[in-house]
């Protein structure tokens, strides 16, 4: 990394810390104590008779180091060298004061420096740098860390690209991805690391490259997905990774996985004082503060270096998924490609509910205005009728099989309207730089596809919400949609509609992906929904499902339609050879 690039990187990192609390979330003591205790329990036997070197690469106020030193002291281990990095000079001073007050005479080595730059500067082999080559820097026996969570959008494209290049990551990156891999590089042989991270990387497409890299450099000992326990004030769903430096000569242990998420099931619940105490339980847990959670223990299924979604695997879940696999004909992505809706990046210009009230000379031509489908209309099977229907000014069409922008000169009223907003539209530099016309929508999708039957669904919801659109609406970017690539498979699209709305798919989601947000909400995004299973549509049971879901569509909203929905749910479970189960969050 050049000196200039380093200066730009440091400046950006410090600005992020001061301008916005995206990532600077100091660790609560109970969580710090938990991570420290897990590291102490996993100490390798013997350390060559020298002082034990411990490190926090983003030390903040020193809470994690204090917890770890206390745990080691309780085991009679006091010969320590303590190292820490932070870009905040005041935080370093506070940490130094706290540690020396509690442990007088302790050997502290704190640096007001960016840990990532420190590692890269000692491992640079060429213009881009190269980690995981022979070390030229200090190594550490124990690492405890709560690295900053700063996503690509905040970090900036240039800095994100630098991180990706230096740490061999692909796609969107978070700053903590770099910390995880840098920690692996500075761990000594048999070294142990306890790292608090956002749980997002375990299941998102953006986390694929870091998921793939971790097993190459660590033996994962245990992962705790702390879900929606709100251990941080910020909207971060944390996880803890306990790992050991990878040694090819040593058989990799079977990694353990524990998850805890809020639940509305309190039957036969174990009592616990707090979230950390609840981690020792299994099943429903009721805390003293009245909150209820579900705790699961199993094996971490991480797919090795292939970057698969990390999930909990138990005998029960594996047997359940095996049964589903036996009855699976195809998955949703076999019907057609799942797409996100349109993204204008100038919604106030392109999307309105009052086009008819505009003056005649700037009221866009009717053929350019299309009904817009948004998550506000979301209902199972059939969308609700919005109180204020929105329309989108859609300046795209298909010519000879190719999507093109309209010739704006042929639509003088639309041209007048867009001209009034030209400054805003031309402000979207990325549109111009991509060789597009200033009045285009950024992500318009296929103009010909809108008229065809399509299943639409919203991204985040507690229960699945899939509905059929037969009205030719344009799907907004707050929803996803699926159209049959082959029109002869439209019945399979109706089958997907029934499966997508079933309680069966909630159970499948929880077994297969186990990715929930606050209050039990699930994320129905492409990488999950494309793997949803479908039974064989030629079977009698499937044909009945297709018939009933079409009937429910025509009858909604009505009591009869809701009765049919209950029957559909039962039939979907039956299609996969399973009895319906009660679904709790």
Topology:
Elements: H1 3-19, H2 29-41, E1 52-56, H3 63-74, E2 80-85, H4 89-102, E3 107-111, H5 115-121, E4 140-145, H6 152-155, H7 157-167, H8 175-186, E5 187-198, H9 208-217, E6 218-225, E7 238-245, E8 256-262, E9 270-272, H10 275-278, E10 283-287, E11 292-301, E12 311-313, H11 315-326, E13 330-331, H12 332-335, E14 338-340, H13 347-350, E15 351-352, E16 369-373, E17 381-382, E18 391-393, E19 396-399, E20 402-405, H14 412-420, H15 422-426, H16 429-433, E21 454-458, E22 460-461, E23 466-469, E24 474-475, E25 479-482, H17 490-500, H18 503-512, E26 522-523, H19 526-529, E27 533-534, H20 540-555, H21 559-575
Parallel strand pairs: 1-2, 1-4, 2-3, 4-5, 6-8, 9-10, 16-24, 17-23
Antiparallel strand pairs: 5-7, 6-7, 8-11, 10-11, 11-12, 13-27, 14-25, 15-18, 16-18, 19-20, 21-23, 21-25, 22-26
Helix pairs in contact: 2-3, 5-8, 7-8, 8-9, 17-20, 20-21
Description:
Helix content is 34%, strand content 21%. By secondary structure, it is an alpha/beta fold. Among the domains are: 3-246, Vaccinia Virus protein VP39 (Rossmann fold); 344-450, no CATH class. Strands 1, 2, 3, 4, 5, 6, 7, 8, 9, 10, 11 and 12 form a twelve-stranded mixed beta sheet that branches. Strand 19 (396-399) and strand 20 form a beta hairpin. The radius of gyration is 27 Å and the shape is globular. The chain starts with a helix and ends in a 10-residue tail after the last helix.
